[in-house]
Amino acid sequence: MQLLNPKNSLVVIPITTVMLPGRGITGTALIGCSALIALGGGGAPALYFWAGKIVGKQIHQPRYFRLCNRIMAILLVVVAAMMFFDYVVAPLL
């Protein structure tokens, strides 16, 4: 299913033709980096599946559900703060 995902083409082509060669990654190193990107893209759904199976068994208990919600809320605030700094504060400096 991931092979038919149009985002793959939108990500892989710019990365392998512009970004990686711009950083001096060419030839067999480019093939290796592309393989790692492909493994990451294909492995992510499998990781989500296994994480869901493991966490899903525990999350039925209210205390684990609250803990997961709090962790996700903290991560959301951290990411929002990082994005605010990167895209609002840093350009003004």
3D structure, described in words:
The protein is mostly helical. The protein folds into 2 domains: 1-55, no CATH class; 59-93. It contains 3 helices and no strands. It has helices at residues 6-22, 28-58, 62-92. The model has no long low-confidence stretch (mean pLDDT 84). The chain crosses the membrane at residues 29-50, 71-90. This is Lysine transporter LysE. Keywords: Membrane, Transmembrane, Transmembrane helix.
Give short descriptive properties of this protein.
mainly alpha, 93 residues, 3 helices, flat, 2 domains, 85% helix
- Give the number of domains: 2
Give the C-alpha Rg. Answer: 19 Å
Oligomer: single chain
Largest sheet report: none
Question: How much helicity do the residues have?
Answer: over 70%
Provide a count of the helices: 3
Uncertain spans, ≥5 residues at pLDDT below 50?
Answer: none
What portion of the residues fall into strands of 2 or more residues?
under 5%
The CA-CA distance between the termini, in Å, is: 44 Å
- Average pLDDT works out at 84
Structural class: mainly alpha
What's the overall geometry?
Answer: flat
Number of strands: 0
Order of helices and strands: HHH
Keywords: Membrane, Transmembrane, Transmembrane helix
Protein name: Lysine transporter LysE
Organism: Salinicola lusitanus
Transmembrane segments: 29-50, 71-90
